[in-house]
Automatic annotation (TrEMBL):
Alphabetical keyword list: Signal
Gene Ontology biological process terms from the UniProt entry: cellular response to abscisic acid stimulus; negative regulation of gene expression
InterPro entries listed in its UniProt record: At5g01610-like, DUF538
Residues annotated as signal peptide: 1-24
UniProt cross-references to Pfam families, sorted A to Z: DUF538
Record keyword NADP present: no
Keyword Nuclease: no
Gene3D superfamilies linked: At5g01610-like
Provenance organism: Arabis alpina
GO cellular component, one term: plasma membrane
Record-given protein name: DUF538 domain-containing protein
Length: 163
């Protein structure tokens, strides 16, 4: 009674050997979506704060990034941007293409931003029929959903005059 058979013992040993490697899959020091962007020479500011997870196929550049919710803010005080809770596309050095989930409001129309290209110190956002360029300095920090690039922590309410 109570004998451990050889096969039971082997299963026991095997499960101890397998367990650590399956735990190692959830690696906490994997790079963030923001550092991935930087590794492709993009500024972090083209991605709003709040990415909860992402996936990336390094061989093709295919990616998805996930937010808890959709996200809207104004870009440099002019255009309104909207990010869905899931965005996707293909990333390569200096180029994002076949983007889905990112829209810009131009006049009264919401247009999909389908391509973002970094050209030296400029960022070019293309909606297919036309594109707009912005200085890269505008994107050194990630915007926040809601207040975008113009969040002022010290501001409680009302307008703050600045010149
Ligand atoms: C996303 O939602 C989860 C669950 O509600 C929450 O714990 C987490 O803080 C949220 N993340 C962000 C970035 O808002």
């Amino acid at each position: 009674m109570g004998f451990i058979t050889m096969s039971n013992l082997l299963i026991l040993i095997a499960s101890f050997l397998i367990l650590p490697s399956s735990l190692a899959v959830t690696d906490s020091d994997s790079p963030t979506a923001y550092s991935i962007l930087q590794s492709y020479n993009f500024p972090v500011g083209i991605l709003p704060k709040g990415v909860v997870s992402y996936d990336l196929d390094k061989s093709t550049g295919r990616f998805h990034a996930y937010f808890n919710d959709s996200c809207s803010f104004n870009l440099v005080g002019s255009y309104q941007l909207n990010y869905k809770s899931v965005i996707s596309g293909y990333i390569s050095e200096n180029k994002l293409k076949k983007l889905t989930g990112v829209k810009v409001k131009v006049l009264f129309l919401w247009l999909n931003i389908v391509e973002v290209i970094r050209n030296k110190e400029e960022m070019e956002f293309s909606v297919g029929i036309t594109s707009a360029n912005f200085a890269i300095q505008e994107f050194l920090e990630s915007p926040q959903c809601g207040c975008g690039f113009e969040c002022d922590d010290s501001k409680s309410e009302g307008f703050v005059a600045s010149s």
